[in-house]
Amino acid sequence: MSATNPKFELRGINHLALVCADMRRTIDFYTGVLGMPLVKTLDLPAGLGQHFFFDCGGGNTVAFFWLADSPDAAPGIAAPKGRPDEGELASAVGSMNHVAFAVPPEQFDDYRSRLKAEGIAVSPVLNHDDSPAGVSRHVHPGTFVRSFYFQDPDGVLLEFACWTREFTDADVAHEPKTAADRRVRTGS
Question: Which residues form the VOC domain (predicted)?
Fold first, then answer.
């Protein structure tokens, strides 16, 4: 699953930086529930906060800031209010919508069961395809990724996903939307 970048030799995601309310709770979830090793911790200068890094495999990390002056979470603005299976997908322009971790296809169902056994609310399995609904009940030749969603203790939307086929030129077939196509909500 790779295409050649003619401009830069990018080697994946070094880290994705998120913000948490409670670093101890974040460590408990990411190391205890998801098994990610905590690989680097640091205190930020002038008492601004902390920055901790978790190994999420393949040389990639997920990092968290704990910032002394962070505003409270803003579900529906800074992140989705809930999971896509609950009808929640919207988040603001410039927000981080969700983090999808690549998992082995042969472990996919077991990983979902294990999270449920940990008491984590998980979405149904979604077999993403190009149908009008975007998902199907069963895997078929048009299914390109299987996934399920869950949230961390701060409401960060997470996904375990596994590719099911290689992409072809036919997979890039949609006209890009512009800012003029948006349905901007006004008022409250």
Answer: 12-163
Same domain, 59 and 94: no
**Locus of tokens 């009808």:** 87
Count of domains forming the chain? 2
Quote the CA–CA distance of 52 and 19 in Å, as a whole number: 10
CATH code of the domain in which 121 resides:
3.10.180.10
Mind listing the pLDDT tens digit for each residue in 164-185? 988 888 887 778 888 788 776 6
Q: What is the spatial distance between Cα 97 and Cα 161, in angstroms, rounded to a whole number?
A: 15
Which residues contact residue 144 at a Cβ distance below 8 angstroms, ignoring those fewer than 6 apart?
128, 129, 130, 163, 164, 165, 167, 171
pTM (2 d.p.): 0.83
* Predicted local confidence at residue 42, as pLDDT: 86
End-to-end CA distance of the chain: 43
User: For 48-68, what is each residue's pLDDT tens digit?
Assistant: 889 999 999 988 999 999 998
